[in-house]
Amino acid sequence: MSAATATDSLPPEAGWTPSKGMVGMTCLIIAESAIFTIFVVAYLFYLGKDLSGPTPQQVLEWPILNTICLLSSSVTITLAVRALRSGAANRFKVLWLLTIALGAYFLLGTGLEWRHLIHDKGLTIKTNLFGTTFYSLVGLHASHVIVGLLALLIVMAFAMTGSVKQEHAERAHVLALYWHFVDTVWIIVFTVV
Predict the structure, then answer these.
(1) What is the model's pTM?
(2) Would the pLDDT of 5 be above 50?
């Protein structure tokens, strides 16, 4: 008897094993969490140790709208996965596209904030310790948003061709976990910075 046959014959309550995608994404999130922890600790360690300005209080503004958009994208991606699980392909597409739009708006807002900080406030990565750690931490997060958006766009391209079906809901859920991770990290970055 093969291992697959032995597992298939067990009743559902005998044991559950997560999919390879879930295990892989969980491992990725754990590793990425360690990297973000290092960057957050570095930011906090060097905070206030600058010999020259500007300081965070002098140049940073609250990115409220960007934050609302990014956190709302966690809701839309959750609803998109639910729609796919229930077989509502068109609703899935709309919600998935809305998730992409919210993430793209966040990224655009981050870029505009950086432009303002660099050109209007004179804060660059070379200005002082704050500039170095700020751009490193926020840039690390932005790079993860870019990766997430690229993955979402690939799924959207497949969805537009009709290739994403109800049986792919688990895979969409795995990708949604990455997106939730990116959103959760933003809450920490937003709070710390």
Answers:
(1) 0.88
(2) no
